[in-house]
User: Fold YbaK/EbsC family protein from Ferrimonas sediminicola.
Amino acid sequence: MGAAIKVIDYLDSLGVQYQLVPHAHSQSSIQSATNAGVPARQTAKSVVLEDNEGRRILAVVPAASRVVIQKLSDQLKRELHLIPESKLKGQFNDCELGAVPPVGKPYDLMAVYEDDLCNEEHIYLEAGDHEHLIRISRKGMQALMANQAHGHFSATTVANEKPRRAWDWQ
Assistant:
């Protein structure tokens, strides 16, 4: 399938330079990072949440972390819960099921991102399929998340993770 058209168009509209990073088929963001040989802490994944009024929020955290839903609920002052993947099919129509990109605006979603992601020199985004990541710079990530809510609302789940291979980006 390749990268989601809406995400690529949005990156282009912002002037964010990016590089597609192919990897072996994966079933999770952490596996995508491992298969691509990049650190999971630099790989952004999405978790789609919903409040009690039906408003959806895209929580963006490192693949090596999980969203602490109660902490995010407290920060946003609204009660949030996880949405099953089966309810997302129509929202992300240019993506494969289970491969939600960590970009809210092209999908008319509010996004909230974990501050730790902007500490990295490069960030790898899930691309909307199970075989690519999108590599952008910290500056690109800041442009992508401009005017979006952010904070500390995740907990690391993978300790001492190391990539299997390194990429030569020159």
Notes: Residues 37 and 163 are 5 Å apart (CA to CA).
